[in-house]
């Protein structure tokens, strides 16, 4: 059974920083993509940052220059360093993993962690 366990959310003042972590456990197979999404109240879930197995990254325009995604392939863990946080970054942040077992692809989601940025 595969589990994604997130940590690091919380309440921070505008301009502050937080670091989110997401550890994948279980027979997850070969991880191809790790990413962070977020969903604010009344809004659709949106992609924040993506890192693929080769190390390439991609960011939403709204977080470029402020957020940084990284991964530890040995620990099957993905991180999101969030700096210069703004109130509009307030949302539930979800970890996402795309993994391959043979020729089959599987998508996994974390339970979500709340990030609240006060003005």
For the record, give the distance between the C-alpha atoms at the N and C termini, rounded to a whole number.
40 Å
- Mean pLDDT figure: 96
Beta-strand percentage range: over 45%
Query: How does the helix and strand content classify structurally?
Result: mainly beta
| Dominant shape | elongated
Query: Could you list the spans in which at least 5 consecutive residues all have pLDDT below 50?
Result: none
Rounded Rg: 14 Å
Extended strand count: 11
Q: Sheet with the most strands?
A: 7 strands, mixed
Total helix count? 0
Sequence of secondary-structure elements? EEEEEEEEEEE
Q: Helix fraction? A: under 10%
Description:
The chain contains no helices and 11 strands. The protein has 119 residues and is mainly β. The strands form 2 sheets. Strands 2, 4, 5, 6, 9, 10 and 11 form a 7-stranded mixed β-sheet that branches. Strand 7 and strand 8 (77-82) form a beta hairpin.
